[in-house]
């Protein structure tokens, strides 16, 4: 599957004051557990450390659907929503280009 054919999300979440570290830990743990992503980046805003940005690229449409309908997704969603100061912003996207992984 070409990179441009892989489904992806761009997500912005703002934690309640003082809960940013917990949000970042939970989001990272969820990404690692799901195994449905080809790659992901979780970034923290410099100007507001309670704001999380996540770019997640799924392995395939089937992997995305399987994750979204999994007990893990339901569990994480409930836990994350409790930490948020406002509703998350989620935009469905497809990667246009990416550099190949470099040496470790």
TrEMBL record:
InterPro entries xrefs: Dimeric_a/b-barrel (IPR011008)
Taxonomy, superkingdom: Bacteria
Protein name from the UniProt record: Quinol monooxygenase YgiN
Organism (species): Streptomyces beijiangensis
Organismal lineage: Bacteria, Bacillati, Actinomycetota, Actinomycetes, Kitasatosporales
